[in-house]
Amino acid sequence: MYLVIYPEGTRYTDRRKASSDAQAREKGHAIYESELLLPRTKGFVLLVRSLAGYIPTILDMTIGYAKRDGSLLKGSELGTGVLKRAFCGESPVGTVHLHFKHFAVAELPDSDDELVQWTMERWAEKNALLGKLAKDGSFPGEPLPAPPPSRLALFGRIFGFTALSLLGVHLLWLHVWFRLYCVGVVVMGIAVAWIDPPEW
Q1: Does the predicted model carry a pTM greater than 0.90?
Q2: With 90 as the cut, is the pLDDT of residue 124 above it?
């Protein structure tokens, strides 16, 4: 089993970056020079405490996108418009840089406050990594190039995504219980966010 989480909780925009920086100043955290947003640590702490006996390792992944000329691609240059360009065979992304670091769950701090601090330290490392990527064009360490996916693999992924989307539309159209389930999930999500709003 593996579980993927995204502690920043949202896509990058200039407005969200300004809000994140304001929250960082208010809480006494450093402001990130890169486009990182302040992580929301409450969910991460809950997951670590709940799944400590089931997941032995945390794989910390930092992603950086570069243009075809090698310069760093900013988050403000990405967005839903990229999907349309990708379907037309165009993309502003020339290279995707990935940096991985393993942490044993058993070696993480015991208290919640220390785990929050541990998460903030990881984000400071990510900020430094992205700064090096912008300056040198690569993350530290020996690069391991990955070949691009084949046309057949891309077709398979697009076909799978399309099939699942059509199945979802079919279930929404024909099955009232599925519609009620979807409405219930949305209402519950709004209620939880209203009762216990996420903290930066």
Answers
A1: no
A2: yes
